[in-house]
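Researcher: Predict the fold of Xaa-Pro dipeptidase.
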Amino acid sequence: MSTTLFNLQLEHIAHLQRAYEQVLTKSGFDSLAIYSGHADYHFADDHAASFQTYGHFVHWVGLADIQHSWLVIAPNTRPQLYLYAPDDFWHLPTKLPEEPWVSALDVHLCSTKTAPTLTGKAVVIGDIESVSTDISQALKADVAPNALVQALDELRMFKTPYEVACLREANRLAIAGHQAAQTAFIGASGELDIQLAYLAASRQRESNVPYQNIIGLNNHAGVLHYQHYDLTPPKQRFSLLVDAGRRFRGYCADITRTYAGPDAPAVFGELVNALHRLKDEMVESIVPNVDYVGLHKQMHHSLGNILVAHDLFKGSAQQAVEEGVTRAFCPHGLGHSLGLQVHDVAGLRHPDGTPAPAPTEHPALRLTRTLKPGMVVTIEPGLYFIPMLLKPLRDKALPINWTLVDQLLPCGGIRIEDNVLVTESSFENLTP
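Model: Structure tokens for Xaa-Pro dipeptidase follow.
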């Protein structure tokens, strides 16, 4: 690991210390404990589900697999890390890396699950309801009010240079996986083999991915969160959609690419190229103080132009938007905030914590903020051929080229997604 990254992380921790002190002072509290969380067992079983550490805990330590641990923050005091590290021969005990950031914390190794030491008027955040009764009673602290948690969420909207470096590296590692997935598709692999190729090239196991990778061949590409992997390759290869990511020190990459197969109609390959151009157009529209809802609406107008240009809609682009045609072809939002969570916090709130819900006509939009320097967002326009969404349009007198739509149904759909940093004057695409 580079010295530069380590130095950035130390600066990041110092920044968090200052910011948390301000939040605590404003909220009238003397100390705050963050619970890491822990994995829960499957019902009637002794096998635990997959787990990721609470985002506000990872914000400090950059480790996404810490359980039963606590981090205590107080003004003018070094952060106190109570790390659960029991003696265990069934599992490898938790161990901190030998990295400089560890020296910025006071580390207390705990062989048993325990409550941290708190001072003054204290509050806790995290999945407190899941801790044992004896620990809960020993905490002697209040559950943090929503306003305090929202202030910490807002802090995560704006990435430090360390966080940007982590997101950039997560993208680099994910890109290697996407390249391997494309190669496997060219080699006529099935969904499971494409997934395994992605994992191998991006150097991760399936339990570590930030979200379940979407590997959809043919009509499966039209299932927005397709959740299975067919074991055998299809007889015909119309399309592949890969929506897959990677974590680096807790930070998530979220990248999507779509490829036309050898059996796809020629127009499908043209549409894939058009969506790449649309993605680039939307990325290049990112500047400070731009309204993300406005960008989402801009995407729909551009999508209307694509439908008209490729003979899918024989009316005007404006009509395609006004009649809800573009929403049927693209039912999701333009993108979302990205960071320690794939759909990161505070995307649907104003800076003061008040709600900023998605517009009624675009209910799936996950980000409604005015973009500011330091935010990282995804840009992911899509164009899908989903029978259940298109069916209501068939009963309307709309100039949709149903013959062409039916030819494209086996292709499922297209999504192209990049991760973008809002800079002081423009943008940086983290997905080169």
